[in-house]
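Form P-L/3: holo structure prediction, ligand zinc ion.
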Amino acid sequence: MARPRKPRRVAFLPGVTYFKPRGIPLRLLEEVQLSMEELEALRLKDLEGLEQEQGAERMGVSRPTFQRILEKAHRCVAEALVLGKALRIEGGDYEVVPMQLHCRHCNHRWEQTAADSPLACPNCEGQASELPRQQGHHHQCCPCIPEDR
Ligand SMILES: [Zn+2]
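OUTPUT (holo model):
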Protein backbone atom coordinates (compact mmCIF):
# COMPACT_ATOMS: atom_id res chain seq x y z
CA MET A 1 0.00 0.00 0.00
CA ALA A 2 1.67 3.18 -1.15
CA ARG A 3 1.42 6.12 1.16
CA PRO A 4 1.33 9.54 -0.45
CA ARG A 5 4.90 10.77 -0.39
CA LYS A 6 6.11 14.19 0.41
CA PRO A 7 7.71 15.70 -2.66
CA ARG A 8 11.48 15.81 -2.53
CA ARG A 9 13.07 19.23 -2.44
CA VAL A 10 15.11 20.10 -5.48
CA ALA A 11 17.16 23.29 -5.73
CA PHE A 12 18.53 22.83 -9.20
CA LEU A 13 16.82 22.61 -12.56
CA PRO A 14 19.17 21.51 -15.31
CA GLY A 15 19.69 23.57 -18.44
CA VAL A 16 20.35 20.39 -20.41
CA THR A 17 17.84 17.55 -20.07
CA TYR A 18 18.80 15.15 -22.85
CA PHE A 19 22.04 13.33 -23.60
CA LYS A 20 22.40 11.19 -26.70
CA PRO A 21 25.33 8.99 -27.65
CA ARG A 22 26.88 9.82 -30.98
CA GLY A 23 26.76 7.33 -33.81
CA ILE A 24 23.89 5.16 -32.68
CA PRO A 25 21.01 4.96 -35.16
CA LEU A 26 17.78 6.29 -33.77
CA ARG A 27 15.96 3.01 -34.22
CA LEU A 28 18.51 1.23 -32.05
CA LEU A 29 18.67 3.94 -29.44
CA GLU A 30 17.32 3.07 -26.05
CA GLU A 31 16.62 5.62 -23.40
CA VAL A 32 16.95 5.75 -19.64
CA GLN A 33 15.14 8.31 -17.57
CA LEU A 34 16.65 10.14 -14.65
CA SER A 35 14.19 11.99 -12.45
CA MET A 36 14.79 15.50 -11.14
CA GLU A 37 15.31 14.25 -7.60
CA GLU A 38 17.81 11.66 -8.82
CA LEU A 39 19.75 14.41 -10.56
CA GLU A 40 19.60 16.50 -7.39
CA ALA A 41 20.96 13.60 -5.33
CA LEU A 42 23.86 13.25 -7.78
CA ARG A 43 24.52 16.98 -7.64
CA LEU A 44 24.53 17.13 -3.85
CA LYS A 45 26.49 13.95 -3.17
CA ASP A 46 28.83 13.56 -6.12
CA LEU A 47 29.33 17.14 -7.27
CA GLU A 48 29.09 19.17 -4.08
CA GLY A 49 30.58 16.36 -2.01
CA LEU A 50 28.00 16.43 0.75
CA GLU A 51 27.56 13.50 3.10
CA GLN A 52 24.40 11.46 2.64
CA GLU A 53 23.06 12.89 5.87
CA GLN A 54 23.42 16.47 4.60
CA GLY A 55 22.05 15.59 1.18
CA ALA A 56 19.03 13.97 2.80
CA GLU A 57 18.45 17.07 4.86
CA ARG A 58 18.63 19.34 1.84
CA MET A 59 16.08 17.26 0.00
CA GLY A 60 13.81 16.80 2.99
CA VAL A 61 14.03 12.99 3.01
CA SER A 62 15.42 10.35 5.34
CA ARG A 63 18.97 9.15 4.86
CA PRO A 64 17.90 5.69 3.60
CA THR A 65 15.58 7.37 1.09
CA PHE A 66 18.40 9.63 -0.06
CA GLN A 67 20.62 6.60 -0.48
CA ARG A 68 17.94 4.82 -2.49
CA ILE A 69 17.47 7.83 -4.77
CA LEU A 70 21.24 8.09 -5.22
CA GLU A 71 21.63 4.39 -6.02
CA LYS A 72 18.91 4.62 -8.63
CA ALA A 73 20.61 7.67 -10.11
CA HIS A 74 24.00 5.90 -10.28
CA ARG A 75 22.35 2.94 -11.95
CA CYS A 76 20.68 5.13 -14.58
CA VAL A 77 23.86 6.97 -15.41
CA ALA A 78 25.90 3.75 -15.49
CA GLU A 79 23.37 2.13 -17.77
CA ALA A 80 23.46 5.07 -20.17
CA LEU A 81 27.29 5.17 -20.24
CA VAL A 82 27.98 1.44 -20.33
CA LEU A 83 25.19 0.38 -22.65
CA GLY A 84 25.24 3.47 -24.85
CA LYS A 85 21.73 4.63 -24.08
CA ALA A 86 20.31 8.11 -24.30
CA LEU A 87 19.63 9.82 -20.99
CA ARG A 88 16.52 11.89 -20.47
CA ILE A 89 16.18 14.00 -17.34
CA GLU A 90 12.59 14.61 -16.45
CA GLY A 91 9.74 13.86 -14.10
CA GLY A 92 9.84 12.62 -10.55
CA ASP A 93 8.14 13.66 -7.40
CA TYR A 94 9.66 16.95 -6.35
CA GLU A 95 9.09 20.56 -5.53
CA VAL A 96 11.45 23.32 -6.52
CA VAL A 97 12.94 25.16 -3.59
CA PRO A 98 15.51 27.78 -4.56
CA MET A 99 19.06 27.60 -3.32
CA GLN A 100 19.91 30.17 -0.71
CA LEU A 101 23.16 31.76 -1.65
CA HIS A 102 25.64 33.85 0.17
CA CYS A 103 28.45 36.01 -1.21
CA ARG A 104 31.74 35.57 0.64
CA HIS A 105 32.92 39.02 -0.41
CA CYS A 106 30.08 41.47 0.17
CA ASN A 107 27.84 39.30 2.35
CA HIS A 108 24.90 39.66 -0.01
CA ARG A 109 22.25 36.92 0.29
CA TRP A 110 19.80 35.84 -2.39
CA GLU A 111 17.87 32.89 -3.78
CA GLN A 112 18.11 31.21 -7.13
CA THR A 113 17.06 27.91 -8.66
CA ALA A 114 19.12 27.02 -11.66
CA ALA A 115 22.87 27.30 -11.66
CA ASP A 116 24.09 26.81 -15.19
CA SER A 117 27.17 28.95 -14.73
CA PRO A 118 29.29 29.18 -11.60
CA LEU A 119 27.29 30.97 -8.98
CA ALA A 120 28.17 34.64 -8.97
CA CYS A 121 26.97 37.40 -6.68
CA PRO A 122 24.62 39.85 -8.45
CA ASN A 123 26.20 42.68 -6.44
CA CYS A 124 29.92 42.20 -6.81
CA GLU A 125 30.21 39.07 -9.01
CA GLY A 126 32.13 37.42 -6.22
CA GLN A 127 31.93 33.71 -5.70
CA ALA A 128 28.85 32.51 -3.87
CA SER A 129 28.38 29.57 -1.61
CA GLU A 130 25.18 27.73 -0.89
CA LEU A 131 23.68 28.13 2.55
CA PRO A 132 22.02 25.17 4.19
CA ARG A 133 18.31 25.77 4.30
CA GLN A 134 16.69 26.16 7.71
CA GLN A 135 14.46 23.32 8.84
CA GLY A 136 10.78 23.91 8.24
CA HIS A 137 11.49 26.82 5.95
CA HIS A 138 10.59 25.10 2.75
CA HIS A 139 6.91 25.95 2.59
CA GLN A 140 7.65 29.48 1.47
CA CYS A 141 8.94 28.02 -1.72
CA CYS A 142 8.74 29.12 -5.29
CA PRO A 143 5.11 28.95 -6.51
CA CYS A 144 6.07 27.66 -9.93
CA ILE A 145 6.43 23.93 -9.45
CA PRO A 146 6.98 22.70 -12.99
CA GLU A 147 4.82 19.58 -12.99
CA ASP A 148 5.28 18.79 -16.64
CA ARG A 149 8.94 19.50 -17.24
ZN1 LIG B 1 28.95 40.01 -3.48
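COMMENT: The CA atoms of residues 37 and 83 lie 23 Å apart.
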